[in-house]
């Protein structure tokens, strides 16, 4: 029984890593909802953690949730992109086990001693490095292949390694520089470049497979320009020059909006499995517009009275990052289980619920009169995420420990 279970879970990279990511998506929101409820005295009591909860939450989302799905996806797609050998089982399972152990130790340290969390983050870093090296080897060995998207994602993975290392240094030294670098690198040098590269490569491709008379449009100049804007945003954040972020954010928002239209956002609603990717990408233009508007407000004398708070970041993190991960993970899980590439109505409803979580989270900071209800709305947004993601996990997790229905390996 256990042997068969292990065989199926380890049969392909996405199985173990998506499984762990699904569970982590539940655990981290349970912990966060519990903390919010106690902090705002909605129910329960405020808990003293070994690490400030805001920065623990940021690390858990940036480096302990999204990477499970990113590694599961890249371990699967890199050999296809590069026409190379499949990733060896011991490689992706090593990354998965190290990250699971690291996350477990991080949670344990939150309740007990910080050094336990430091040990956990170190294990996560080793898992990151293992993933980066194996994917980088495929990139180096690839010949006569288009390596541009893979080069972007590999560089971003290296920055992710640096971001995790910086978090360890912050835990050891309490230097805010390392904390700030870890946060900004994780968002702007790690997650954004990877999701931009994946979006640029996969959304037009998937669209061309199901939409009639679809013309693939993915010029590289716009990808390089958007990546430049992303890096510029991160550097300006690190330099504390938030009033100039609009110079990077507004052009990025315009490019994202242009691509949404050009890629056929409205046409994508014909196929729900495709629409989830287009809707997720549409959040990129919305979030960057909010970032740009926030930057312009910072330049004004009355910036202290209204500055959008964390709304731009959560529009990006929940709207674009999380929604894209949910859409891609659903597609990979369905396709690599031998099932027809069709998104069932239940999963579609869960995805719409995810969009509601994003709206509820950013509403108090976009509509000042609603701000008085902010704590409750923050908690509601967390509960919506937790509910939708838990139901998604219940729906898809059994697929990871069962054989493909078409009898094929993997």
Automatic annotation (TrEMBL):
Residue ranges spanning the membrane: these are 16-34, 54-78, 90-109, 115-132, 152-173, 185-203, 215-238, 244-261, 273-293, 313-334, 346-364, 376-394
Q: Which InterPro entries match?
A: NnrS
Keyword Transmembrane applies: yes
Alphabetical keyword list: Membrane, Transmembrane, Transmembrane helix
What is the recorded name of this protein?
Answer: Uncharacterized protein involved in response to NO
Q: What species was this sequence derived from?
A: Nitrosomonas marina
């Amino acid at each position: 029984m256990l042997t068969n279970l292990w065989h199926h879970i380890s049969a392909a990279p996405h199985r173990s890593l998506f499984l762990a990511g699904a569970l982590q998506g539940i655990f981290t929101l349970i912990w966060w909802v519990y903390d919010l409820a106690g902090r705002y005295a909605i129910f329960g009591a405020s808990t003293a953690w070994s690490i400030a909860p805001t920065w623990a939450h940021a690390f858990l989302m940036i480096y302990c949730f999204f990477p499970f799905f990113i590694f599961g996806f890249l371990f699967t797609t890199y050999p296809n992109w590069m026409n190379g050998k499949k990733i060896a089982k011991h490689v992706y399972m090593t990354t998965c086990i190290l990250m699971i152990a690291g996350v477990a130790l991080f949670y344990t340290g939150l309740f007990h001693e910080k050094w336990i969390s430091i040990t956990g983050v170190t294990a996560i870093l080793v898992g990151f490095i293992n993933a980066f090296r194996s994917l980088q080897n495929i990139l180096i060995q690839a010949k006569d292949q288009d390596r541009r998207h893979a080069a972007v994602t590999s560089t971003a993975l290296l920055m992710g390694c640096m971001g995790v290392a910086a978090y360890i240094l912050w835990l050891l030294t309490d230097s805010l520089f390392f904390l700030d670098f870890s946060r900004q690198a994780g968002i702007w040098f790690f997650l954004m470049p990877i999701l931009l590269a994946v979006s640029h490569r996969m959304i037009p491709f998937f669209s061309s497979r199901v939409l009639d008379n679809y013309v693939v449009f993915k010029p590289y100049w716009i990808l390089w320009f958007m990546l430049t804007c992303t890096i510029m945003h991160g550097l300006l954040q690190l330099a504390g020059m938030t009033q100039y972020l609009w110079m990077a954010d507004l052009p990025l928002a315009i490019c994202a909006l242009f691509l949404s239209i050009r890629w056929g956002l409205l046409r994508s609603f014909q196929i729900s499995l495709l629409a989830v990717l287009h809707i997720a990408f549409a959040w990129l233009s919305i979030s960057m517009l909010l970032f740009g508007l926030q930057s312009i407000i910072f330049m004004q004398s009355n910036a202290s009275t209204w500055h959008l708070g964390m709304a731009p970041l959560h529009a990006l993190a929940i709207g674009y990052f999380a929604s894209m991960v949910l859409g891609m993970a659903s597609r990979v899980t369905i396709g690599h289980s031998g099932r027809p590439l069709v998104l069932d109505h239940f999963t579609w409803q869960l995805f719409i619920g995810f969009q509601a979580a994003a709206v509820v989270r950013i509403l108090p900071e976009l509509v000042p009169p609603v701000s008085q209800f902010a704590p409750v709305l923050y908690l509601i947004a967390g509960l919506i995420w937790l509910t939708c993601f838990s139901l998604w996990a219940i729906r898809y997790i059994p697929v990871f420990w069962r054989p493909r229905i078409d009898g094929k390996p993997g």
